[in-house]
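Private note to self, pasted from the team thread so I don't lose it. Backbone tokens:
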């Protein structure tokens, strides 16, 4: 040990150090080296060991091909070796200095040791197989060693420039040792790592720089900026950004000293050439896709401002010298509107108070995001960064009025609401206590935002609520223990109130969430509530949620029976319910007894598995219960598979296999497989499960692997597949017709069930009477869902079960064997490469990903090498594929891309990504057009390559590692359009679309030409420099084919793609002709494309011209275009040329704001104007006529009926949008007029139409109807507008003196349509034909919330008006309807099976809603009756 070595004599220590073994390094060995680094002999031995490590690395690394974990361990050992050598060098300054000063021969060994270290570091820096962390550390080691040898870092500048300075102090042997670093052919990243080493290992703080250090400091950013256009990998871009930020920090340290050199000061002041280049780098990277790059860019920008502050004459205040910042401010102001919201906040920290004052004063704009949205954005950023702090109980120090915050939390625009919620939830410190004001704002936010239709808004809301709960948890730890007496020295007075306030937070959040999980809430509220409840219940165990069932064995048996019945339901969502129920029951100690009771009750002639007695076993209750449930589900599944092997049609009709498999996978998930006790039982279960999965797959494979699985038309040439399909096809085909697509096969009673003679168990799941009707759709669903569950189950078994491997489980605690894992891998390969149904191979991909993740981290060398082996096999198969291959060339290559995706995603992100690089090079070569004649047979590999590339570019798991290959993919996609083969052109179209999304981001709106998914031309060609010459050459070729003068239409295949890419760019004020990637050569070519005889080409050319016209060149460009127009008509006049030029002039004017203000380009759609004018004519009459005649009233009534008809749910969205616009304008004139010009009946009908639109499923319709609040309170979300509208209507009833009539109408709304609700019994059975369709169900409206809202406002109206005089006749009529509905609901509820909440969810929800509405109505009617 280290301590024992230190206590020995000196001669023993030196001999021990000399015998230090060359082994892989770890922390203990590094610590040993640190303690021994004071011995002179140690440096020589360390040098030899590190050199041996570097020399043997190449051999070891290639020998571990495919074993990513072992390769990562080798990299860590190399990193530890380099760090250890640096540590020894730092501790050996005295012998190194002596060796340098002395030229005696006895120091030659030390010279050789140091020279060996330099050669080792050079080898690491120039070998691209090493990961960046090792290379970066080697760069620091080189600078450290040079500094130790010559006493300074003056020679580092020569290394960066690949040259030797004339006055170099470095000895000859040093330069020879690192000769590879002086070669111009070295990798570009070497300069990056040396720059990082110079900044990290040399001292820059608090000292005056010498000439060489000053030269080095100014040289480093030049080197880094030259790398900017050459690096491709995102990880290298990240390192460049980090090193630039490190340099800016070092520059700040250098300019802060009083003796800063004048040359350095003048070179770093704002406006200098170097700072201008750095600003251009900032402008190109502050919107980079990587978060880290954006953060580093922001930090560098702040450092540059500090540098300018110290280099200028106004050191005290940055704002005292506004001229120094004028170029930056001007650049920001000239930014397009689509990016200014992202860029301007870079300066907001310096002018925050001014921004807030301006925005607060102008925050009253209604109907748009406007100033209120900007205010919330700035406040949120300021608070999260610690610029703005809360004072006591006031949010933001009382800067923003509380009503304004409430308005922002319910604003119509999603981003305003999210920024307002972020302002409340986020804080600079996680321990910042919550104020009562913040809790009240959360209470105000939740009820109106739970049913958000936007997935992004729901995800952001859940994420922000999670941050809030983390704040509660962290800040609550600072509160005193409630068990200590208040007023003591540890518990200050008033702390009990704070603790009580914190305890109320969970209730405030949970109450609306659990209410929305009631059975009458719909999809969006359930999604939000489930996600939020998952966040809330993360620390909780499900065991604590199920203790209430332990004393109720009968209820436990009922729940278990329902779960078992639902697992065989033909409705896919019932199996999900069954799995949740089983997971709930797994923690119950009496589950095994209940399971035995259910088995005996079903009278099934199958022996149940031997149940494990908890008294004789050390296994946990969860493990025993899980094993028992899995064993019984396997017993049932084996019987069902046996029946399905004889009749797949019968299986699809009565016992689809996927439900049981899904439940098995679900119950295995909570099990901690690392601490299993019943190992022998689990080994038998896993082995049997794998075999059972193979049998299930064999049953359904003929369907999902057929050429046309959706139609079951056997077109395969393989005899086995064709024979299996013919058998299934004959089974499904109806007896009396061949039209099996639309007709259902009616099973014979004798075929309906093999167990028909057995007694039917009690309390079975309610099934439709038409259960014998089977369609081809049901068979297909049964097959692909079975394949899905098989894949998920196999993937879970391989991922979670311990592997029988001596390296990982030497004590024999493994469950799954290597042969079983390899067999599962071969199964996935077969399914992914041969399945044709998308549902089958998409879910097989999920299971295969789990398998590949397990292979990567397994301790078996054989399993670790399988992904690389499989990948090479499939790439060779793709390369040699032809029409006779089994690989599917249609359906976008089916599962082949998924197979390769899964293999590549198993590669660790921290590795050198060798498999990804190899795959991309191979696929890119295949995707490029070949010199051979393009035929259907020769183009099959190209089609596969294009489809696989498309999938890889879409894969988010590959992250930014795929970005360096975007340029090659874009070239392949564009060149693919020139192929005469349709399949190649089709795949190229799909690849091109994917690349557009990958480059410019996911489309954030319906507008194809939106400015949100764009970037500057400078940024585009900086990220993808290889596309500059390619696009230019392709555009030259395409423009040469454009000739409208001949009158013939000549369309180059790639012209549309080129113009589409160029049209996604926009001009930047930083673009200039001095850039090597100047945009000027594109302009004449695009202008020429505007002469095309194809209208679409002229339009796209006009749009593509905009990015290449600088803002300052707009007038001259327009002048040039106008001069090309003919002065007078003539025989050679071409209208296409004139039209294309005018389009380009029109688009160019949009670049300049001054020109845009002087040109009126507004146009209106004629049909919309006519329709709105026709519907608004009656509104205009009211402005001039106070007393309406009877004829006018009749006319208005007809108009109201027309508007009401346009608000019906079955109307198109365009019609409802127009009706919403008309109703919004009618609110201040007709709907709120004191004179009631339409009468109470028609007016209330129009209000009901408005409320119907506010609950419409289309978001645009809801937003349009919510605009009626803009006049009074501003733009609010539709739920808030609905609440406000009902309250306003109740107030209008009082103003009109029509409270009694209003009460009758609103109670009628509360009861709903009695004709549909009272016939609930007849509509309980779902139509099997629409089993997989949404139908007319409105997934946004919430009838339960609507009913309770009406009840709440009506109750308030009754209390205010003191029981209005409603006629007894009306009360009796409404009471009769309510009682009839209550009786119908009671009868329907009795007809449901046991526990209908799970077994008949939809039917139970309908009946429960009817009961709730009836109960609320009866409550109001009883209140209205005279006492």
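Design output:
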């Amino acid at each position: 040990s280290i301590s024992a070595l230190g206590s020995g004599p000196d001669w023993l220590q030196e001999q021990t150090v000399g015998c230090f073994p060359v082994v892989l390094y770890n922390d203990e060995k590094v610590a040993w080296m640190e303690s021994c680094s004071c011995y002179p002999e140690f440096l020589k031995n360390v040098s030899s060991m590190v050199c041996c490590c570097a020399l043997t690395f190449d051999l070891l690394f290639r020998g571990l091909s495919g074993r990513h974990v072992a390769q990562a361990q080798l990299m860590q050992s190399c990193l530890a070796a380099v760090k250890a050598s640096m540590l020894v060098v730092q501790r050996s300054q005295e012998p190194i200095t002596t060796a340098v000063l002395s030229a005696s021969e006895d120091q030659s060994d030390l010279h050789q040791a140091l020279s060996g270290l330099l050669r080792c570091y050079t080898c690491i820096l120039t070998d691209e197989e090493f990961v960046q962390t090792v290379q970066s550390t080697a760069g620091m080691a080189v600078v450290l060693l040079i500094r130790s040898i010559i006493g300074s870092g003056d020679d580092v500048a020569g290394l960066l420039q690949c040259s030797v300075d004339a006055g170099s102090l470095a000895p000859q042997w040093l330069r020879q040792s690192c000769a590879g670093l002086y070669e111009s052919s070295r990798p570009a990243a070497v300069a990056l790592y040396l720059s990082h080493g110079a900044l990290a290992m040399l001292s820059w703080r608090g000292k005056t720089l010498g000439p060489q250090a000053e030269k080095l400091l100014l040289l480093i950013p030049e080197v880094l900026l030259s790398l900017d256009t050459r690096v491709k990998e995102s990880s290298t871009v990240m390192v460049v950004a980090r090193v630039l930020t490190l340099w800016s920090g070092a520059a700040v340290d250098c300019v802060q000293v009083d003796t800063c050199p004048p040359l350095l000061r003048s070179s770093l002041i704002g406006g200098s050439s170097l700072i201008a280049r750095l600003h251009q780098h900032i402008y190109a990277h502050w919107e980079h896709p990587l978060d880290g790059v954006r953060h580093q860019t922001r930090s560098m920008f702040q450092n540059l401002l500090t540098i300018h502050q110290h280099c200028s004459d106004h050191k005290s205040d940055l704002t005292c010298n506004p001229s120094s910042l004028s170029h930056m401010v001007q650049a920001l102001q000239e930014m397009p509107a689509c990016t200014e919201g992202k860029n301007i906040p870079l300066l907001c920290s310096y002018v925050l108070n001014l921004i807030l004052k301006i925005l607060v004063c102008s925050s009253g704009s209604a109907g748009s995001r406007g100033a209120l949205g900007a205010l919330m954005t700035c406040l949120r950023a300021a608070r999260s960064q610690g610029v703005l702090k809360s004072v006591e109980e006031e949010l933001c120090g009382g800067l923003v009025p509380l009503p304004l915050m409430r308005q922002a939390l319910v604003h119509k625009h999603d981003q305003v609401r999210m920024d307002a919620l972020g302002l409340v939830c986020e804080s600079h410190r996680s321990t910042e206590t919550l104020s009562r004001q913040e809790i009240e704002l959360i209470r105000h936010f939740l009820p109106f935002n739970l049913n958000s239709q936007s997935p992004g808004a729901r995800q952001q809301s859940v994420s922000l609520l999670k941050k809030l709960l983390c704040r509660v948890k962290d800040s609550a730890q600072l509160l005193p223990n409630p068990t200590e007496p208040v007023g003591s020295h540890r518990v200050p007075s008033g702390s009990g109130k704070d603790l009580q306030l914190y305890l109320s937070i969970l209730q405030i959040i949970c109450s609306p969430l659990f209410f929305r999980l009631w059975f009458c809430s719909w999809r969006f509220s359930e999604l939000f509530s489930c996600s939020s409840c998952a966040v809330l219940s993360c620390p909780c165990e499900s065991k604590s949620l199920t203790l209430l069932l332990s004393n109720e064995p009968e209820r436990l048996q009922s729940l278990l029976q329902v779960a078992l019945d639902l697992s065989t339901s033909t409705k896919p969502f019932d199996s999900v319910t069954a799995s949740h129920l089983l997971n709930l029951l797994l923690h119950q100690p009496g589950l095994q007894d209940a399971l035995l009771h259910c088995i005996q009750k079903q009278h099934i002639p199958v022996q149940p598995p031997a149940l494990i007695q908890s008294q004789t076993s050390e296994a946990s209750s969860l493990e025993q219960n899980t094993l028992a449930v899995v064993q019984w589900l396997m017993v049932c599944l084996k019987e069902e598979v046996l029946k399905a092997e004889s009749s797949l049609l019968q299986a699809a009709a009565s016992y689809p296999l996927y439900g049981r498999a899904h439940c098995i996978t679900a119950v295995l998930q909570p099990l901690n497989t690392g601490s299993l006790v019943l190992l022998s039982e689990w080994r038998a279960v896993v082995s049997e499960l794998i075999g059972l999965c193979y049998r299930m797959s064999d049953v359904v494979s003929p369907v999902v692997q057929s050429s046309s699985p959706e139609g079951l038309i056997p077109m395969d040439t393989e005899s086995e597949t064709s024979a299996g399909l013919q058998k299934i096809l004959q089974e499904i085909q109806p007896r009396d017709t061949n039209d099996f697509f639309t007709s259902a096969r009616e099973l014979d009673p004798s075929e309906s069930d093999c167990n028909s003679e057995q007694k039917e168990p009690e309390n079975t799941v309610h099934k439709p009477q038409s259960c014998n009707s089977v369609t081809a759709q049901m068979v297909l669903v049964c097959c692909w869902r079975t394949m899905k569950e098989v894949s998920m189950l196999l993937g879970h078994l391989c991922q979670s079960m311990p592997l029988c491997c001596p390296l990982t489980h030497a004590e024999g605690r493994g469950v799954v064997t290597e042969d079983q894992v390899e067999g599962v891998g071969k199964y996935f390969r077969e399914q992914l490469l041969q399945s044709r149904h998308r549902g089958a191979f998409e879910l097989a991909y999920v299971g295969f990903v789990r398998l590949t993740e397990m292979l990567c981290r397994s301790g078996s060398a054989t399993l670790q090498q399988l992904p690389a082996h499989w990948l090479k096999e499939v790439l060779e198969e793709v390369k040699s594929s032809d029409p006779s291959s089994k690989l599917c060339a249609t359906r976008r290559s089916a599962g082949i891309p998924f197979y390769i995706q899964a293999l590549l995603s198993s590669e660790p992100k921290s590795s050198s990504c060798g498999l990804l690089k190899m795959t991309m090079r191979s696929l890119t070569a295949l995707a490029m057009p070949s010199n051979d004649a393009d035929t259907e047979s020769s183009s099959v590999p190209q089609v596969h390559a294009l489809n696989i590339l498309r999938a890889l570019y879409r894969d988010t798991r590959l992250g930014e590692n795929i970005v360096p290959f975007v340029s090659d993919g874009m070239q392949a996609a564009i060149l693919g359009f020139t192929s005469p083969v349709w399949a190649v052109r089709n795949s190229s179209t799909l690849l091109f679309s994917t690349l557009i999304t990958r480059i410019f981001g996911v489309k954030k709106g319906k507008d194809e030409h939106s400015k949100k998914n764009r970037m500057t031309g400078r940024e585009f060609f900086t990220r993808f420099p290889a596309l500059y010459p390619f696009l230019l050459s392709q555009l030259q070729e395409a423009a040469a084919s454009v000739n409208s003068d001949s009158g013939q239409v000549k369309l180059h295949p790639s012209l549309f793609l080129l113009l589409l890419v160029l049209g996604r760019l926009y001009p930047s004020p930083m673009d200039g002709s001095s850039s090597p990637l100047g945009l000027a050569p594109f302009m004449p070519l695009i202008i020429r494309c505007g002469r095309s005889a194809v209208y679409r080409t002229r339009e796209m050319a006009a749009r593509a011209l905009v990015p290449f016209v600088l803002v300052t060149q707009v007038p001259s460009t327009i002048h040039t275009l106008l001069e090309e127009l003919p002065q007078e008509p003539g025989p050679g006049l071409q209208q296409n040329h004139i039209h294309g030029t005018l389009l380009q002039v029109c688009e160019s004017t949009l670049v300049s704001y001054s020109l845009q203000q002087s040109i009126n380009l507004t146009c209106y759609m004629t049909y919309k104007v006519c329709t709105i004018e026709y519907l608004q004519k009656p509104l205009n009459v009211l402005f001039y006529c106070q007393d309406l005649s009877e004829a006018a009233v009749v006319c208005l009534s007809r108009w109201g009926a027309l508007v009401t008809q346009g608000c019906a749910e079955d109307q198109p969205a365009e019609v409802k949008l127009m009706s919403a616009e008309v109703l919004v304008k009618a609110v201040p004139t007709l709907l709120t007029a004191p004179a009631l010009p339409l009468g109470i009946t028609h007016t209330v009908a129009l209000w009901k139409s408005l409320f119907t639109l506010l609950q419409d499923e289309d978001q645009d319709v809801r937003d349009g109807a919510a605009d009626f609040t803009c006049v009074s309170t501003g733009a609010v979300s539709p739920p808030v507008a609905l609440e406000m509208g009902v309250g306003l209507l109740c107030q209008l009833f009082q103003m009109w003196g029509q409270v009694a009539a209003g009460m009758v109408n609103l109670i009628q709304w509360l009861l709903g349509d009695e004709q549909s609700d009272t016939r609930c019994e007849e509509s309980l059975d779902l139509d099997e034909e629409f089993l997989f369709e949404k139908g007319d169900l409105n997934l946004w409206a919430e009838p339960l919330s609507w009913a309770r809202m009406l009840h709440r406002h009506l109750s308030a109206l009754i209390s205010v008006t003191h029981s209005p005089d409603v006629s007894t006749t009306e009360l009796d009529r409404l009471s009769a309807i309510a009682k009839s509905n209550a009786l119908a609901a009671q009868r329907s509820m009795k007809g449901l099976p046991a526990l209908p909440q799970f077994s008949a969810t939809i039917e139970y929800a309908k009946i429960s809603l009817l009961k709730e509405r009836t109960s609320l109505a009866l409550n109001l009617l009883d209140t209205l009756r005279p006492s």
